[in-house]
Amino acid sequence: MIDIEILLIASLVAVTCSFLGSFLLVRKEVLIADSISHAVLPGIAVAFLLTGQRTTLFVVVGAALAGVIAVVGIDLISRARMIKKDTSMGVIYPFFFAIGVLLVTYYASRIDLDLNCVLFGEILFTVLDRTYLPPTLAAYLGFTDIGPRALWIMLAVFTTVVTVVLLIYKEIKITSFDPSFSRVVGINPYLLYYILVTLVSLSIVAAFEIVGAILVLSFIATPPATAYLITKRSLAAVVVIGSLISLVAVVIGYWWGSFLDLPIAAAMATTSGVIFAAVLFGKKVVESLK
Amino acid sequence: MSDFGVIVLPVMLASVFLGLAGGLVGSITLLQRRSLFADAISHAAFPGIVLAFLIIGKREMLIMTLGAFLTGVIGAYAVSSITKYSHIKQDAALGIILANFYAFGVVLLGVAQKMPVSFQSGLNNYLVGQIVAVLKNDLWFMTAVSLAVSIIVFLFFKEIQLFIFDKYTLEVLGFKISYLDIGLVFLMVLTVIVGIYTSGVVLVVGSFVIPGAIGRLWSDKFTYMLAIAGFVGAVSGVVGVYISSLAPRLPTGPLIVVVSGIFLLFSLLFASKGGIIKEFILIKSMKRKVTEENIIKHLYLVNEEQLDEGYQQLGVPFTYLLGALSTTPFRLNRSLKRLARKGYITYSDNKAIVLSEKGYEEARGIVRRHRLWETYLFNRLSLPDTHLHDDAEMVEHLLTREDEEVLDKILNFPKFDPHGRKIPREV
Q1: Beta bridge partner(s), residue B345
Q2: Given an 8 Å threshold on Cβ–Cβ distance, is B217 in contact with A80?
Q3: How many domains does chain A have?
Q4: In chain B, what are the domain boundaries?
């Protein structure tokens, strides 16, 4: 029972991340996800301090704001003539992350989120934190435990992300490939960019306690890039193949990770890295044979 | 006192020299636009540290540094191979290497955690940095490495400067560009790895690049930029380590980054090059200049034909200028007052505005530059005559007297602009 729940949670994380990662990939903005994943930490820490509870949907939204603020900060700093965007990422995210780490360690007794969780994620523990039906409904239905809280939060974020992206799919495509044309047809590329950034931020916060700050980037960057090696036909193809690859990595990673009793989320990420390397290498071999 | 010599001194020396080396290498990295590349390398070094630990079974800094160096260089090579052998772009390649090498490191850490407790204790310290956890001998090792890095930067200063700004000259002088490039990457990897012991895998790049960015904001000169970055790096290192020694629970890395981050915020506001306040003042004074020049230009244009035919200059009423310049009465009034103070305009008896001799000369110069620019665009760039005016409206405020002479010469001292208006000249 618990195995299936872990796999479900991990699959939701993987598919949500790879889905958004595909759009970042074609925009050449993958590393903004890296900045966001580090920058949400102070947001999460402050949300913990204010509400004193583990991640609820409300806290997810609040902490995601920190990610968006960091992106605004990166944009502002790179407007200073002397500092390019890569540098401004390289200064903003360490600054945010540093503040986050200090908050988490200083208020260790009040923030139920230790450094291990930040760095590695605690996918095995997420299933221990259950969601229960309200008593009246539970009495009526005859059961009260409806699964891990993380599963429900991830499901809510996944649904939000997919719905929003499908609604503005055409606009995202236009702004990603041809920002100047998008202005001509009246789509504001900044607005679209910030919608995307907000979705990425939401997903990262939701995935944070499951896979940690850095591994989440593997889920965002690797499967879409692998898909991009396989097909260049269309954005939709990259999205679909990327999601499938991420699911394969989740299952294989879970299998050997739990078999050897190693950190599961890291095992999944490593697997997707190996798949990427194999596809890249295999493609070169095939090309050289031709 | 003995406490100072045994514990505090090595820690302080290590943090000073690490900060210095970090600031220097950080500046070079920033100018090469390799900040995020360095970030990927620091994460790629992590599995190397754990692997070295797993192989020899204890924390031996030299071996762990070698391990980190190995996987760090493999990571760097992998990033450049991915972009070279596929159509995946740099950003995605960096993200993939950074996250997956790190993931592999976490898996290895999981293996290490199965060993007896005494062995694996403190491996977490490599992720967020904890200088207190570093042994005394290792502190001397770190000091020596960072000192060596700083000396190398100092000795090869000229070559590095040329490498960043003028590769061509370097090639002409007979240097192998690719060797220098590899040398600089090695230098960066080495500094990143030694920095990991105080700042941690995740934050080490911040502790480098932030001082570099501060140097960039305060100076256009490479020498000064390096000096400032090295100084800020050293100071942040010492202050961060000091606070960490007062509150040993707090890891060193984040403290160093937050201290230098505060310096950065200050610099972003007040720095002499590209600081926000300085930029603001620049923009403000440029806007002022444009408004003032437009006012006297209008005064000139209204009177152009009269003066050419030898008549007296007519005064222009305030309301006319207000309509012509699309500005607010308040701003126009302020600009007029400034112009009057500079002696460019005077007021006639009926409060109309008149150009002084000095103002007239100035305005004629602006109109001349405007018309010369239009002629240039028309003759040399073959732009249609409907597309000339808007461009010239902007450029007239930017052209200097020297530009004007050059333009005049190139165009062979034209008499009329493409619209058939006379280009005014000194008599």
Answers
A1: B355
A2: yes
A3: 1
A4: 2-271, 280-410
Q: Which CATH number is B280-410 given?
A: 1.10.10.10
Is there a domain that residue A206 lies in?
yes
Report the residue of B91, B239, B260 to disrupt the A interface, i.e. the one with the largest count of A CBs within 10 Å.
B91
Range of the domain at A73: 2-128+146-210
Q: A229, A224, A290, A223: which is closest to A251 by C-alpha? A: A223
Chain B CB contacts of A106 under 8 Å are 247, 249-250
Residue A30 is assigned to a structural domain of this protein: yes
**Yes or no, beta carbons of A263 and B109 under 8 Å apart:** yes
By the CB < 8 Å criterion, does B205 face chain A? yes
**Structure-block tokens of residue B58:** 């204890």
Asked whether this complex has an ipTM greater than 0.95, the answer is no
Q: Using CB atoms, which residue from B82, B109, B205 is nearest to A90?
A: B205
Rounded Cα distance between B85 and B112, Å, is 35
With H, G, I as helix, E, B as strand and everything else as coil, classify residue B416: strand
Selection from B277, B214, B167 nearest residue A82 by Cα: B214
B92: nearest CB among A80, A225, A267: A225
Buried b (16+ CB within 10 A) or exposed e, A164-180: bbeebeebbbbbbeeee
A284 and B85 within 8 Å at the Cβ level: the answer is yes
Topology of domain B2-271, CATH: ABC transporter involved in vitamin B12 uptake, BtuC (1.10.3470)
As a whole number of angstroms, the distance between CA B201 and CA B38 comes to: 11
| Residue A121 forms part of a structural domain | yes
Q: Residues B64, B50: contact at Cβ < 8 Å?
A: no
Q: Helix (H, G, I), strand (E, B), or coil: what is residue A189?
A: helix
* Residuewise pLDDT in 10s, chain B (427 residues): 445 556 678 888 889 999 999 999 999 999 998 999 999 999 999 999 999 988 888 778 889 899 999 999 999 999 999 999 888 999 999 999 999 999 999 999 888 888 776 555 677 778 888 777 788 888 889 999 999 999 999 999 988 999 888 888 888 888 888 888 899 999 999 999 999 988 888 899 999 999 999 999 898 899 999 999 999 999 999 999 888 888 877 888 899 999 999 999 999 888 877 777 887 888 888 888 888 888 888 888 888 777 777 777 778 888 888 888 877 888 888 888 888 888 888 888 777 888 888 888 888 888 888 888 888 888 888 887 777 788 888 888 888 888 888 888 888 888 888 887 888 876 5
Nearest CA to B422 out of B313, B297, B308, B302 is that of: B308
Residue B269: in which H helix or E strand, if any? helix B252-270
The beta-carbon neighbor of A120 closest among B95, B106, B114 is B106
Measured between alpha carbons, how far is residue A43 from residues A35, A59, B381 in Å?
Answer: 13, 9, 54
Is A220 a member of any domain?
A: no
Q: How far is CA A239 from the centre of its chain?
A: 15
Distance, CA of B10 to chain centre:
33
A249 CA: distance to closest CA in chain B (Å): 12
Partner A contacted by B84 (CB < 8 A): no
The DSSP line for B163-195 is HHH-HHHHHHTT--HHHHHHHHHHHHHHHHHHH
Residue of A nearest to B272 (CA): A82
Integer Cα distance of B369 and A249 in angstroms: 66
Closest Cβ–Cβ partner in A87, A106, A266 for B30:
A87
Burial class of residue A234, CB neighbours in 10 A (0-12, 13-18, 19+): exposed
A168: domain CATH number? 1.10.3470.10
Q: Of the candidates A94, A96, A92, A88, which has an alpha carbon nearest to the alpha carbon of residue A46?
A: A96
